[in-house]
DNA sequence: CGGTCACGTCATCGTTCGGTAAGACTTCGT
DNA sequence: ACGAAGTCTTACCGAACGATGACGTGACCG
């Protein structure tokens, strides 16, 4: 059970030309307590946004006519605060960077688990509606000397700014949000990269690069620990609770 | 059973026409604390879901009669929240098929490592039960001073972390979940290693290594006891109450 | 058009793991 | 007490795994 978004019922506009997709998405969103409208193409989407004033738009990247990027740009021009979650396929040229560039608040790669999508949407909604302190999506993640400012997407180590790339920050953010537990490379690929399949060494390398930046001694990491035969685990400096 | 199992015991339905596969999967899942039901084909699966109300379904894609896709669709129509993990042979069709069309929550390609499958299943269950970012809620097996944290895959002896290898942890976990009775080496080979046949000395050696790490005096073990002529038995420090 | 940066991939290398074998030791039946 | 069967202990070695450095590509910038 996905559970309802606390407090109010949100209205979500789902824009996708494939009914197969939009239908599944709608069912899941409705289940989680959202009102849902559908639009099959870009211009319908723009019209629907004007008419319905949704709280969030789920936008497929590849569509006939106005594609997701273009729709997103026009939305941004008009309503910069309207949260947008992008749907992209793996094979598509545009990856997340492109999506984020035009101002999407999050993206989900196809094929995705509907559950995952709903979680992302809820997270974006929570952030967007600026609701009170939300333990599920704090803007600042801190552990001892290490601080991750998810708003500015900047990390600090004892006050000193640490330049992290997009991937590195995503990875760190995920680990900080899910500390203590051992995550397999496949898990990380899926939840940080949004890939269902892929080369596990990608994770290995990025963990290494991240360690290089946030561990005092990268050869003997104290935060991002290797769980042999399993994956990695973030060890909180300060034990929660 | 000793050891407060913090975190609930899930029921999982495994659907596969190949007993070879489903049997191994079942053993691993049971070892990791799930109750398991088997179904050999699609219609049996649907019946079992209706009758048993499992928390999660592991579904083979290729099956005679109703295949995994069809089963998944019908499940979705009825119970959109029931998590499904797909088993697929490495193939090209998998991506398109699996992502949206049927809404599987994850999939694992054959051949797979049973351990990886169990990790995925746990991961899906965790998300599904909505306890995602909760580092305090992994299943803990405890007996007196000894603690096995299955989330972190770390054991503790009186608070002090004890580094265990994958096999050692698996073995300990099994014994903690099945204390008090004697297990033959063949049993352990089957249920911990997933082997039907094999050298019994493998077990002997691993028990030795485990004792070395968790017994105060490995020469006079108080937890993992030898049952002469039979095998081994985990002796709970605290008698179940 | 170079130069830089991010990032995925690959090859290599050192480490760890874990199964096996062999000998020492203990238990048990006679 | 003796031999046989069972168990413990140690050492070894191939295989699996992770760390590391380097390369190729594409995006972005001057």
Instruction: Calculate the mean pLDDT score of chain A and round it.
Output: 79
Write down the overall geometry of chain A: elongated
Number of domains of chain A: 2
Q: Alpha-carbon distance between the termini of chain A?
A: 27 Å
> How do the helices and strands follow one another from N- to C-terminus of chain A?
EHEHEHEHEHEEEEHEHHEE
Oligomer: homodimer
Strand-pairing-aware structural class of chain A: alpha/beta
Largest sheet of chain A: 5 strands, parallel
CATH architectural type of the largest domain in chain A:
3-Layer(aba) Sandwich
Low-confidence stretches of chain A: 1-7, 91-100, 131-136
- Reported by name, the CATH topology of the largest domain in chain A is Rossmann fold
Radius of gyration of chain A: 19 Å
The largest beta-sheet of chain A arranges its strands as: 2-1-3-4-5
The residue fraction in helices of chain A comes out at 25-40%
